[in-house]
């Protein structure tokens, strides 16, 4: 008998075993049928990527989690991976980010002069009986809060901008900072910018807020700055007083926006 069977020479009259090559061909055909059957599922799976944009591929659309279709979230600037909505490099308040950098720096300088003229970013309120073991700029945000918790009943104003606990808690949350982040000069500036926005800095630069109103807003946040009365809004409370004159304050603000 010629053909494939005779070449292989593998006759078994009782079992009629299929030659090895033929079995291999049948197996390949089964694999082909199986792949063809599941190809629609493979195509469906390409509609999205749990990895997201990056070296492992690009998310193309929706992905499914717990039975719910979820659209990929648009990226925004952030220093910390996994913190798209916030972080140390989460977007600044819009008006402060768009303000001229020299104007921002000048305003920060005015506040620093009033609040911490000597120690600057390493300032700790002089009424704090138990001070931190390290300079504030050498501490993490978590260590700052631990110091506050461990020393109740005293002043805890800290840093160039003399953040008090409630204010510090709020602005840290707003910028998305973490306990492990350093309380560095850059971080302190970042936190202070939130308060500048609260005071209406952008509206002032745009001409939508008067100079006097803006100055009074700043004085409502920082006790070392005078209101239009020439005195601190918190004069006499916990030893607070204006540490710069109204004339000087007004002169410096005028240099920012006449």
Using brief descriptors, characterize the structure shown:
two-stranded antiparallel ribbon, Lysozyme-like_dom_sf, 258 residues, disordered N terminus, mainly alpha, flat, Muramidase (Phage lysozyme)
Secondary-structure map:
Elements: H1 3-8, H2 20-45, E1 63-65, E2 68-70, H3 94-98, H4 101-115, H5 141-150, H6 165-175, H7 185-198, H8 201-205, H9 211-221, H10 246-256
Antiparallel strand pairs: 1-2
Helix pairs in contact: 4-10, 6-7
Protein name: Muramidase (Phage lysozyme)
Describe the structure.
This is Muramidase (Phage lysozyme). The chain has helices spanning 3-8, 20-45, 94-98, 101-115, 141-150, 165-175, 185-198, 201-205, 211-221, 246-256, and strands spanning 63-65, 68-70. With 258 residues, the protein is an all-alpha fold. It folds into two domains: 3-70, no CATH class; 94-256, Lysozyme. It has a two-stranded antiparallel sheet with strand order 1-2. The radius of gyration is 34 Å and the shape is flat. It starts with a helix and ends with a helix. Mean pLDDT is 75; it is low at 1-18 and 35-92.
Helices and strands: which structural class? mainly alpha
Strand content: under 5%
Provide the helix percentage. Answer: 40-55%
* Biggest pleated sheet: 2 strands, antiparallel
Under CATH, the topology of the largest domain is which?
Answer: Lysozyme
User: What would you call the quaternary organization?
Assistant: single chain
End-to-end distance, in Å? 108 Å
Order of strands in the sheet with most strands: 1-2
CATH class identity of the largest domain: Mainly Alpha
Tell me the CATH architecture of the largest domain.
Answer: Orthogonal Bundle
User: What is the number of strand segments?
Assistant: 2
Average pLDDT over all residues: 75
């Amino acid at each position: 008998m010629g053909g494939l069977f005779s070449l292989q020479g593998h006759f078994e009259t009782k079992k009629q075993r299929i030659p090895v090559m033929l079995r291999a061909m049948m197996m390949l055909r089964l694999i082909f049928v199986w792949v063809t059957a599941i190809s629609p599922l493979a195509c469906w799976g390409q509609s999205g990527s749990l990895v997201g944009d990056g070296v492992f591929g690009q998310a193309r659309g929706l992905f499914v989690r717990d039975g719910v279709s979820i659209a990929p979230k648009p990226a925004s600037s952030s220093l910390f991976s996994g913190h798209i909505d916030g972080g140390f490099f989460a977007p600044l308040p819009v008006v402060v980010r768009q303000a001229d950098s020299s104007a921002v720096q000048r305003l920060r300088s005015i506040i620093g002069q009033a609040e911490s003229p000597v120690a600057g970013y390493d300032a700790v309120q002089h009424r704090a009986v138990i001070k931190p073991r390290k300079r504030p700029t050498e501490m993490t945000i978590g260590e700052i809060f631990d110091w506050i918790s461990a020393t109740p009943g005293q002043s805890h104003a800290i840093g160039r901008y003399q953040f008090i606990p409630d204010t510090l808690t709020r602005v840290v949350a707003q910028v998305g900072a973490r306990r492990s982040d350093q309380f560095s000069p850059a971080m302190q500036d970042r936190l202070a910018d939130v308060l500048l926005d609260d005071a209406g800095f952008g509206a002032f630069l745009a001409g939508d807020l008067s100079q006097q109103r803006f100055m009074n807003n700043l004085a409502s946040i920082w006790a070392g700055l005078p209101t239009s009365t020439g005195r601190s809004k918190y004069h006499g409370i916990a030893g607070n007083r204006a540490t710069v004159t109204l004339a000087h304050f007004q002169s410096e603000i005028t240099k920012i926006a006449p």
